[in-house]
């Protein structure tokens, strides 16, 4: 057993640190840094530091093994150093050649000082306290480059915009939106709110799914937008606030493009392993072809069968349609949304006539004002 004693800690050049920690990646162990050290001052790069953090969780680590339940990824845009440690090993250090032989013994256990956790946590805290929380500004418009446009139907397209770096996040709280600025067919400025379908777990970019109407002023702008063009964005905006586990279940009443905030909220809830909230969505459209994000919604249903449910309603359904027909009714809400209770909330987002009708249905069914929210 080789013990590492921490004598001194110094955070080095934390202002230059640019790192993102993500899920589903694996780091290569760097125990040789410990085993080949001489007594004195040693600089640890960020890769080493985070490996040590992984190791210190269990206090012991079999060299050559990896913990499959803990995985991290590091931005390639990091500096060489994060902090320095002045260390001492007990017993006395072996010569470097013996240390490397020691490393190659697969079953050797290496004890890691608990202070490593504090070191990395301190560095991370100092870093995140100085790091910008997102790429957008609530007061000023910033421009983002369109890097991919995917036509989903004759009047619907998905637009992917690039963020400043591959590890940047948009910085949009759950259920909030951005304001997009463009020009209409007359060259006049137009500003309109949109909700991205991406979350801050989608790094390096954000996406908008836009339905373009023949006479829509902002629709004209999006029809003309091409890959390589820039769009001005400001945000975040919105009144919706949510903490994981805040309610037992959400009911969602969406119409047309009003699905985008619902999809964003549903994704955030379902993809959070610490949130067990159920989501019940009623999604209304005129025709089958008008349904937005159908593939993505079906993907969520398949992945979270016990927590996410969608009921589609069409005003002009095709033959052999098994979903709802007509307009969303009180009976549909009773059948497919959670009943009124202090620990549930009903969200609605659609055309103004639909929002007004849904508010009347919810009031009649006994949902209090505190149980309702309109985007």
From TrEMBL:
Residue ranges of domain FAD-binding FR-type in the record: 139-243
Gene3D superfamilies in UniProt: Nucleotide-binding domain of ferredoxin-NADP reductase (FNR) module (3.40.50.80), Translation factors (2.40.30.10)
Subcellular location: Mitochondrion outer membrane
SUPFAM superfamilies: Ferredoxin reductase-like, C-terminal NADP-linked domain, Riboflavin synthase domain-like
Classification of source organism: Eukaryota, Viridiplantae, Streptophyta, Embryophyta, Tracheophyta
UniProt family annotation: Belongs to the flavoprotein pyridine nucleotide cytochrome reductase family.
UniProt KW Flavoprotein keyword: yes
Molecular functions (GO terms): cytochrome-b5 reductase activity, acting on NADH
Protein name: cytochrome-b5 reductase
Transmembrane regions listed in the UniProt entry: 33-57, 108-127
PANTHER family, alphabetized: NADH-CYTOCHROME B5 REDUCTASE (PTHR19370), NADH-CYTOCHROME B5 REDUCTASE-LIKE (PTHR19370:SF184)
Primary site of residence: mitochondrion
Record's signal peptide: none
GO CC annotations on file: mitochondrial outer membrane
Enzyme Commission number(s): 1.6.2.2
InterPro entries: CBR-like, Cbr1-like_FAD-bd_dom, FAD-bd_FR_type, FNR_nucleotide-bd, OxRdtase_FAD/NAD-bd, Riboflavin_synthase-like_b-brl
Pfam family for this entry, one: NAD_binding_1
GO BP terms, alphabetized: electron transport chain
Obligatory cofactor(s): FAD
Keyword Signal: no
Chain sites annotated for binding FAD: 193-194, 209, 211, 218-219, 260
Keywords of the record: FAD, Flavoprotein, Membrane, Mitochondrion, Mitochondrion outer membrane, NAD, Oxidoreductase, Transmembrane, Transmembrane helix
């Amino acid at each position: 057993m080789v013990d590492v004693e921490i004598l001194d800690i110094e955070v080095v050049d934390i202002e230059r640190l640019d790192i993102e920690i993500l899920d589903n990646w694996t780091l290569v162990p760097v125990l040789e840094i410990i085993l080949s050290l001489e007594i004195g001052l040693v600089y640890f790069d960020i890769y080493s530091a985070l490996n040590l953090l992984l190791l210190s969780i269990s206090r012991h680590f079999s060299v050559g093994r990896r913990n499959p339940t803990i995985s991290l990824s590091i931005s390639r845009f990091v500096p060489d150093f994060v902090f320095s440690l002045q260390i001492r090993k007990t017993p006395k250090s072996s010569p470097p050649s013996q240390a490397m032989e020691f490393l190659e013994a697969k079953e050797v256990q290496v004890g890691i000082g608990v202070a490593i956790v504090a070191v990395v946590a301190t560095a991370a805290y100092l870093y995140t306290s100085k790091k910008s929380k997102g790429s957008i500004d609530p007061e000023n418009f910033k421009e983002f480059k369109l890097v991919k446009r995917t036509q989903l139907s004759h009047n619907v397209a998905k637009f992917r915009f690039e963020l400043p770096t591959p590890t940047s996040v948009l910085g949009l709280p759950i259920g909030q939106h951005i304001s997009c600025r463009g020009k209409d067919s007359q060259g006049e400025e137009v500003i309109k709110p949109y909700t991205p379908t991406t979350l801050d777990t989608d790094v390096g970019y954000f996406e908008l799914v836009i339905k373009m109407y023949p006479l829509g002023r902002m629709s004209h702008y999006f029809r003309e937008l091409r890959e390589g063009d820039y769009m001005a964005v400001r945000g975040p905006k919105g009144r919706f606030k949510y903490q994981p586990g805040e309610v037992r279940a959400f009911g969602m009443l969406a119409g047309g493009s009003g699905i985008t905030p619902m999809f964003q909220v549903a994704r955030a809830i379902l993809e959070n392993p610490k949130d067990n909230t159920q989501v019940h969505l009623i999604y209304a459209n005129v025709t089958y072809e008008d349904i937005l994000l159908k593939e993505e919604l079906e993907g969520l249903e398949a992945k979270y069968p016990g927590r996410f449910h969608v009921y589609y309603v069409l005003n002009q359904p095709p033959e052999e349609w098994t979903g709802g027909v007509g307009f969303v009714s009180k009976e549909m809400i009773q059948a497919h949304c959670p009943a009124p209770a202090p620990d549930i909330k009903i969200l609605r987002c659609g055309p103004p006539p639909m929002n007004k009708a849904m508010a009347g249905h919810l009031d009649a069914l006994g949902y209090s004002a505190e149980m309702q929210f309109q985007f």
